[in-house]
Protein: Ribonuclease H-like protein
Amino acid sequence: VALDCEMVGVKGGRSELALLSAVDYITGEVLINTFVYPNVKVVDWRTCFSGITPSAMNLAKSEGRILGGWEEARSELWKHIDASTILVGHALQHDLDVLRVVHNRVVDSGILAKNAVGAGVRRQWGLKILCAEFLGTKIQNHGKKGHDCLEDTYATREV
Structure:
């Protein structure tokens, strides 16, 4: 299962889950693509990165298209995975942290790229760069609208 999360900033400089996307790695079927309403007050929407605005979150909430906090999001994810499922992501530890998940079977494209090039190289291998240089595709080009979580999930799957 390919996975990506978008986060918002909350009190104390912490990150909290605000959007969860998960895609079946083999079929490409969207398993989850939904907003997650943080259980704590948001102090920074990080829209230029997350793509999430207060109005989009409130609209999703009013339409019932939202999960109530990281606990509900994690429960929804566990409907599609188990301990033997391989999770695929980019900088996956951040996503697992906001989901409060410990998982042993992961493939992280950020780690793979760094290891393939060599530990002595200080270059950052962001998902956007990996897609451009190795797949010849452009992602995350929505300007100030921020990332598209589902687009990033599919991109990670391709990388």
In short: The helical segments are 47-50, 54-62, 69-78, 92-99, 109-117, 127-135, 149-158. Residues 69-78 form the longest helix (10 residues). DSSP finds seven helices and seven strands in the chain.
